[in-house]
Amino acid sequence: MPQTIEALLADQGAQAVLAYLNARVPHRYTGIYKIRADLVTSLYLHDKQGELIPENIAIVPFEASICPFVLRDGWFRTDDSSVDERFATHPGRGYTISYHGVPLLNPAGAVAGTLCHFNFTAVPLPDDEFELLHQAALSLQVKLADVLG
Question: Which SUPFAM superfamilies does the UniProt entry name for this protein (predicted)?
Answer without folding.
Answer: GAF domain-like (SSF55781)
